[in-house]
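notes to self, project folder thing:

trying the whole complex as one job this time. last attempt i did each chain seperately and stitching them together was a nightmare. three parts in total, labels are on each line so i dont mix them up again. if this works i'll redo the older ones the same way
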Amino acid sequence: METLMAILIGGLFASGIYLMLRRSIVKLAIGLVLLSQSANLTIFTVAGLTRGNPPLVPEGESMPLVPYADPLPQALVLTAIVIGFGVLAFTLVLVKRVYQTVGTDDMDEMRSTDGFKD
Amino acid sequence: MGILVAVLSGFLVALAAPWLTRWFGDRVGWVIALLPLSITIYLLTFIPDLADGGSVRYSIEWIPALNINLSFHVDGLGLVFALLISGIGTLIMLYGGGYLQGHHQLGRFYLYILMFMASMLGVVLADNIITFFVFFELTSLTSYLLIGFDHNASKSRYSARQALLVTGIGGQFLLVGLILLAIAGGGWEFSVLVDQADVIQDHALYVPIMFLILGGAFTKSAQVPFHFWLPGAMAAPTPVSAYLHSATMVKAGVYLMARINPTIGGTDLWQFVLVTFGAATMLLGAYLAVQRTDLKQLLAYTTVSSLGTLTLLIGIGTDVALKAAMVFLVVHSLYKGALFMVAGTIDHETGTRDIRVLGGLRKLMPITSIGAAVAALSMAGIPPLFGFIGKELVYEAVLDLDTFAIIIAVVAVVSNILMVVVAGITGIQPFIGEEKETPKHAHEAPASLYIGPLVLGTLSLVVGAIPALIDTSIMEPAVSAVAGQPVEVTLYIWHGVNAMLIMSIITVAVGVVVFMGRQQLRSVTNQTNLLAALGPEAIYAHLLAGLDWLSRTQTKIIQNGYLRFYFLTIIVVLVVSAIYPLMAYGNIQLAGDLSDVRIYEWVVVAIVLMSAIMAVRAQSRLAAVAALGIVGYGVATIYILYGAPDLAMTQILVETLTVILFVLVLYRLPQFATLSERGSRIRDAIIAGTGGLLMTLLVLVVSNERFYDSISQFHAEESYPSAFGRNVVNVILVDFRAIDTFGEIIVLAVAGIGVYALLRLRLWEDRSEEK
Amino acid sequence: MKSLILQTATRSLVAVMLLFSIFLLLRGHDEPGGGFIGGLVGAAAFALYAIAFDVQSARRMLGIRPQMMIAIGLAMAGGAGIISLLASEPYFAHLWYHTDIPGFGEIHLGTFLLFDIGVFLVVIGVTLLVILTLSEE
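result (full assembly):
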């Protein structure tokens, strides 16, 4: 299972990076989403995978029945997903603003905005 | 407990200062002065205990695992300093209210200066060396804020940064020195380390410890060659100069030397270093002072000279010298605080601080002139003022030296002659002679401005005439603390005719003569100004310019504005740095374990991968977003398959909202266009592919290796019994790791506010209208 | 996007979604759910309403500015820890109140719930702040 996930993670990572290397700023945002999916799956996978069995304590027991899926990476990834959403929203709005202000979506043409002219 | 309150109350009142200023308006100085006044009264109650040889300690745990405790220790040395800080602080709070009356940022002034006062009290009362260091650095920080108070002026900002850099770098040396000291002495409290003096002085690290600690003390107390920041600090408002740069903060370094003297002092090396630097600073400060024409600059350089005197005396280290050091410390704080306040008052009333255009103010400002005259006489060392006793003791200490007594004695006399001259220039000259035309027509200052000099002048007079008031009760415990053993202190104004008296008479007599010829003196000494180009301040400026250049150059190279370049760098560094450990330690089973994969898992993964490729290759924005959605739902399915229903639900909801978000933004953005060349696309594909391959390898290696047992077991076992929750994931989020979650929702909130700000605050439009 | 069918469906759907979001929030300690998930469902409900009708009516239905929800949420979540501090417990060591309701079973109430509601409000607030502000552009 982990092997399959590793391949998936590699594929998502490569797609994300490729998109982020484009000059078009919209592709940057799409690449960012793929990259965070890949990162989330990485955290989820390296802790070890368990089919079925969510980490829930059944009625009458004091802990989940073994084997159960590792709850800790789930907690980490859950917040990561939501924060990823927040970051994506910020990125998208930034992209939009930049486009409105600078008038281009080509990142190579946005270089002089930070005041360092060569 | 009381000590803790005394130290920390300053920080609390500081936070309230802006509101206090709003409520009390022009009278706020009188209100805020109540705090240092009550601290002073509280501190006075310690005198009987300390005079009997006792001391008071208070400690609460802060970070016990690192031996860092909030421990305070009131002994004679700490008390003298604390009394000066809170006592002069009271007068300064009053003075500041009058001086900055109507200033629109008076609240900010009180905020900073109260924080400074509290930090300073912490410095002189702390027992734990790390606590001491924290307060020591806080004084640097608050002083930075105060020097840069007038932050619109580039001169202020430059001086503030200079002071911060010089004292801050010294502080780093000090921290290392203190930690080594604790290691060598086996204790983290000054009061413990004192008993380990023999061990520390024989320790292999003794020399580095001494130089590191002195690095902190010399920078803070403006010893040559670090003296240049102090005159620069005069960019601060005068109340600040009077308080920080004469009476208190610059004495923090002196305090440190005095505090550490019984622990690491007394060796030949210690004596040699302190005497050399002290004497050099004493002479250079006085020499540079007489060249100046600005009242505050004159006083600043004499402060440098006085700090040199104090260092010299601690370096000599005999009982007489330490007695002289403590007496001179008090003498100097009293007259220098007063003279600075007078300088500020003159500036406030006449609009100038240039001594060449000041004169005849005694008729216009009679009360101020009395305060000024008394302070100046004390500075010049005229009996029966306290300054006379101080100077006699300094001479006595210098004559006590075994070697170089003559050289040091000459240095002391020459410096003191120059001090007499400066005393005349700053305290007497503006008030005598003809009235001169000044930018503003002078009037007597309001009470808040002349109370300070008057009170300090009276004190100089009273303790000078009747030194028995303070000698055994206050000075004796202080000197004993610096010496590390009981020292008897009895002060007399009249010693009979002896060498010291003759030296004093010579000093005053020559001083008066030189004062008469001060104009010639100034023009002669000005000739040497050319040497300044080689001085430490020039070196500092060059270093700073070099640093600027370096950061500009490396920013141009590293932050060249091409986002792709940054990614490239990150990926390449990642790949390169991961490959070696992977090869060396990795246990990669590439061909293994696909046997346990079930058919539906293949299907889901295949769909996700194909959608990802679709997103990459999509020609339209909408197709890309749709592909992205499929990736998201596919990943959610994976979460379901592997027992993570919470994740799956979150992922599905976020995916839905993401699509809405994209749709809201995308139709405002341009169509996809192929911007890059075929060549660079291939290059990027290779980079991305390498990165992806690396991630695959990493995941394979990491999931095959277990370095530590997972801590998840604890969470699973304790979830129901301790946190009464059956959903372990949720229990981790809201209970076990609640602080993490709290941090995460703060991040979320910041992102949301960022979005709102980007959309609603149209700053760039305002700016374009201005053009 | 004014569609009568969508509007009619939305009217009833939104109520169900909001109820469901609170249900998810409250059951989160024992079953899948919790503040994050409940918050996202709640936000989705209002977003749907904004799409079916318009942003103004969605704002009216919300009755409170999203920024305020963020602030209240952060205060509740942070405050949950401060309550523990006041009881001389470490920050975020939750306090508990146990009671037995006849016929219903044992109930555990704790400051964790305050914390989770805080999370819930922050998530709704941020999501809506973004979506509503963007829609008004």
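what i see at first glance: Chain B has a mean pLDDT of 88.
need to look closer tmrw
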